[in-house]
Design goal:
Elements (H helix, E strand, L loop, with lengths): L11 H8 L6 E4 L6 H9 L5 E6 L14 E5 L5 H7 L5 E7 L4 H5 L25 H7 L2 H12 L4 H14 L5 H8 L8 H16 L2 H15 E11 L2 H13 L18 E3 L9 H6 L7 E7 L5
Parallel strand pairs: 1-2, 1-4, 2-3, 4-5
Antiparallel strand pairs: 5-7, 6-7
Helix pairs in contact: 1-2, 6-7, 6-9, 10-11
Length: 306
Amino acid sequence: MSNQVYHIPALLSDAIEGLNIRNNGIYIDATFGGGGHSRAILRELAADGHLYGFDQDIDVLANVPDDERFTFVHSNFRYITNFLRYYGVDHADGILADLGVSFHHFDSAERGFSFRADAPLDMRMNRSAGKSAADVLAEADRRELIRILGLYGDLRRPAPIADAIIRARDAGRLDTTGQLLEAVAGCISPKQEKKELAQIFQALRIEVNGEMSALEDFLKATLTALRPGGRLAVITYHSLEDRMVKNFMKTGKTDGELEKDFFGRVQTPWKMITRNPITPSAEEVEANPRSRSAKLRVAELLGPEE
């Protein structure tokens, strides 16, 4: 691995404070990555505390701490309940998820996450499973491409970009980031070039990794993975992610559908700890510009009588 920084965790102190860590508790870092959040959690744990770190990218093994209180799980965080059962854990005291992409993925050209270098269009977090970005571009029809680009990329005019991709692939498969850039060049505003290219690559990454369905599965799993009184802290970077997390923490459902009792009181399994999301300070954004869109939300699981 190169000498580049693997990742700088966003909102580190706020996330750790939000977990309200018990030093003998059991915690889950659902998105281990560079291990920054995990190391901060371990500093708060006593000898009888334990932390489970989940990540589907095998590259993170280089960051795993040599600590008896830590167990690394090579898996997508959507499967946390399966692995807790495997390790004989009834409930965790806190779960943290940072949904941002590690610097490592953007800075490792061969992974295909960035438009700044010509590389294979891969974008898979788990390179041993699933379709690559090149596969998605080769197989998706026009309607599906418009949906991916519009929904996941927040692009205002996804149709011309989808049409350009179809024309290019009809002339030959789109296998590299450079080929994709060449294909969409005529549809990109010169004044918004970097922003729109970032949106296209973001959309493909979300689709390739099934990020929204994985997030939904993960959130639902926290209802059984946490003990009553346990904390869930989630850092988002995309409006769709943040909306899903906000809905879930307010209502217990990712679509935000409210359930009320006979007296009209909203029924929710969560107590909101953060009424509004916590965002990085100006000082943090200056030190780590990639943290600028981060939003932290924290909720506490209520007991059956609450």
